[in-house]
Amino acid sequence: MATTPAAAAKVWEQNATPRHRIQWCPGCGDFGVLAALKMALGRLELMPHEVLLVGGIGCSGQIRNYLNGNGFHGAHGAPLAYATGAKMANPELTVITLAGDGDTLAIGMENFVHVSRRDPHVTLIIMNNGVYGLTKGQNSPTAGLGQTMEVHTEETPPFVDPLRLALVSGASFAAQSFSGDPKHCAEIYAEAIKHNGFAVVNDFSPCVTYNKFNTYEWYKEHVEDIPAGHDPSSKDAAWALLDDFDRRGRLPVGVVYRAPRKKKPHRRLPIWDEEFADVDPTPMLQPFR
Amino acid sequence: MATTPAAAAKVWEQNATPRHRIQWCPGCGDFGVLAALKMALGRLELMPHEVLLVGGIGCSGQIRNYLNGNGFHGAHGAPLAYATGAKMANPELTVITLAGDGDTLAIGMENFVHVSRRDPHVTLIIMNNGVYGLTKGQNSPTAGLGQTMEVHTEETPPFVDPLRLALVSGASFAAQSFSGDPKHCAEIYAEAIKHNGFAVVNDFSPCVTYNKFNTYEWYKEHVEDIPAGHDPSSKDAAWALLDDFDRRGRLPVGVVYRAPRKKKPHRRLPIWDEEFADVDPTPMLQPFR
Amino acid sequence: MVVNNLKLLVGGVQLRDGVTTITDILGKMFVRAGLHVLAMEKGYASTIYGAHQYDPVVVAETPPLSYGDDRTDILVALEFDTNPDVQPQPNRDTLLRHGKNLKDGGVLLYDSTTSLVDTSDLEARGVKVFPLPARQIALRELKREVVKNTVVTGAFLRLIEFDMDYALFGQYLEERFAKRGREIVELNLEAARRGRAVIEEIMKAHGWADVGYRLEPRPVERPMVLVNGNEALSMGAILAGCRFYAGYPITPASSILEFMEAHLPRYNGRALQGQNERESIRAAIGASITGVRSAIGSSGPGISLKVEEFGVAGVTETPIVIIDTQRAGPSTGMPTKPEQGDLAMAVYAGHGEIPRIVLAAGTVEECYTMAFEAFDLADKYQCPVFLLTDLTLADGRKNLPEAFFAQQRRPVVRHGLLREADLTGDGYRRYAVTESGISPRNVPGVPGAIFKMSGSEHDEMGMVTTDPPKRKAMHEKRMRKMQTYLKEDVKPPQVVGTPDGVPLLVGWGSTKLPLLDAQRQLREEGLETAVVYFTHLWPLPVHLVRPLLQRGSTVIVVEGNYNGQLADLIQQECLIETRRILKYNGRPFYTSDITGGVRQLLANGTRVVRVGDRAPTVVLETVPEGD
Amino acid sequence: MVVNNLKLLVGGVQLRDGVTTITDILGKMFVRAGLHVLAMEKGYASTIYGAHQYDPVVVAETPPLSYGDDRTDILVALEFDTNPDVQPQPNRDTLLRHGKNLKDGGVLLYDSTTSLVDTSDLEARGVKVFPLPARQIALRELKREVVKNTVVTGAFLRLIEFDMDYALFGQYLEERFAKRGREIVELNLEAARRGRAVIEEIMKAHGWADVGYRLEPRPVERPMVLVNGNEALSMGAILAGCRFYAGYPITPASSILEFMEAHLPRYNGRALQGQNERESIRAAIGASITGVRSAIGSSGPGISLKVEEFGVAGVTETPIVIIDTQRAGPSTGMPTKPEQGDLAMAVYAGHGEIPRIVLAAGTVEECYTMAFEAFDLADKYQCPVFLLTDLTLADGRKNLPEAFFAQQRRPVVRHGLLREADLTGDGYRRYAVTESGISPRNVPGVPGAIFKMSGSEHDEMGMVTTDPPKRKAMHEKRMRKMQTYLKEDVKPPQVVGTPDGVPLLVGWGSTKLPLLDAQRQLREEGLETAVVYFTHLWPLPVHLVRPLLQRGSTVIVVEGNYNGQLADLIQQECLIETRRILKYNGRPFYTSDITGGVRQLLANGTRVVRVGDRAPTVVLETVPEGD
Ligand SMILES: Cc1ncc(C[n+]2csc(CCOP(=O)(O)OP(=O)(O)O)c2C)c(N)n1
Ligand SMILES: Cc1ncc(C[n+]2csc(CCOP(=O)(O)OP(=O)(O)O)c2C)c(N)n1
Ligand code: SF4
Ligand code: SF4
Ligand SMILES: [Mg+2]
Ligand SMILES: [Mg+2]
Question: I need a labelling partner for D266 at 20 to 30 A (CA). Which of A39, D160, D177, D558 fits?
Answer without folding.
Answer: D177
